[in-house]
Amino acid sequence: MKTGNVVKVSFKEQMLQAREDAIIRAVNHLLAEKGFEAMTVDEVAASVGIAKASLYKHFPSKEDLACAAMVRVMQRAQDFLATLPPDAEPLDKLRTVVRWTMQLKLDGEMPSLPSQNSSLRATLMASKDYMNGLLEVSDILGAWIETAQATGRINAQIPAIAVLYTLYARACDPVLEFLKMGGQHDNDQILDLVMSTCFDGLNAR
Amino acid sequence: MKTGNVVKVSFKEQMLQAREDAIIRAVNHLLAEKGFEAMTVDEVAASVGIAKASLYKHFPSKEDLACAAMVRVMQRAQDFLATLPPDAEPLDKLRTVVRWTMQLKLDGEMPSLPSQNSSLRATLMASKDYMNGLLEVSDILGAWIETAQATGRINAQIPAIAVLYTLYARACDPVLEFLKMGGQHDNDQILDLVMSTCFDGLNAR
DNA sequence: GTCTATAATCAGATAGAC
DNA sequence: GTCTATCTGATTATAGAC
């Protein structure tokens, strides 16, 4: 009976986890597509294929839905950082990460949070999981930035925090969608262009 | 009697114009502060100090309110472009314009439109005034960009349209508010930093 | 044109049966 | 946990008096 019970509970929990994963993936896509304010809980429920009331059994509010999606993004970022060879050049790792985030954005997988919204910000700041993820990612990137500046690869005149913000901002750069809408370039060309303007600047060299 | 009539009508129209200007300024600030979705018509009315129903006598919808604010921004941009010395270096003029737009953003005077919202986008695209303003500004900037590329000041490898988008994107760059929130730098330092990352890039030279 | 009052709608959240 | 049905509040928009 013990084993039976354990297996049953584990299976149930697996189902629960799978359902919540499906919810978070749907939220992720909707956030990427329309942003937090324009996304409705009805849409999320319809997209997952369950009733709205069921959603609220998993997540207590719309803010918590968005927060869960952001926590997942942070987890994905940490996973990606862990795949990078530890002995690679910090600048190369930074470039790889930025390109990866922009690829996510182009693929409609990067949730975009209107940076002004207050209720969502409050939920995010209160989320231990989100803040931990953000801080860990920032620590890793920050260390790479400082090394890259010390070795003369990144302009040391720019405060490291400004470099970090500039890299984060690529994840929500409207230039990506503008160029994509233009239809004149494929995704790789767009990535090359924005990578170039980000690291080399607009000026001729 | 004719003169009296003319003066009276003109005065009325002046009052009307002044009222609408006040409305548009309030909308401008609220759009800059919270964005289109989070801004409510009640807030606009309260901010102007008139009843909500009166607002709707001037503008038929919330979208038209936002559109009027955007038209005003475009007009201000055109006015600013006209103040630049015609014989100055195109690159210098571009830099001056970008700095001006970022200054507006730092001052809470740059309305931020969630680029995804559909109902607002439809209204903007249907607005002759807005589209005209946008096209004229883009034409002027585009000509400067091409000249700057031809004279070797701006990287000619980058399509002019990508340069234009990159410059436009500075007007809603979240790096500005992040650095401002950090409190470590004053406005001029922030402008210098973002100008540098925009034109010189992150790489050391 | 401006106001008060109200309609109409939509979206976040909940009740309660199963 | 999932559902249907409903509540509640906020928000866009309008009616109608002055």
Radius of gyration of chain A: 20 Å
Order of helices and strands of chain A: HHHHHHHHHH
* Corresponding CATH architecture of chain A: Orthogonal Bundle
Total domain count of chain A = 1
Shape of chain A: globular
Q: State the secondary-structure class of chain A.
A: mainly alpha
- What oligomeric arrangement do these chains adopt? homodimer
Q: What is the CATH topology assignment of chain A?
A: Tetracycline Repressor, domain 2
Write out the CATH superfamily name of chain A: Tetracycline Repressor, domain 2
**Helix percentage of chain A:** over 70%
Tell me, what is the CATH class of chain A? Mainly Alpha
Largest interface comes to: A-B, 48 and 48 residues
Instruction: Enumerate the spans of chain A where pLDDT stays under 50 for 5 or more consecutive residues.
Output: none
Strand content of chain A: under 5%
Mean pLDDT of chain A: 95
Number of strands of chain A: 0
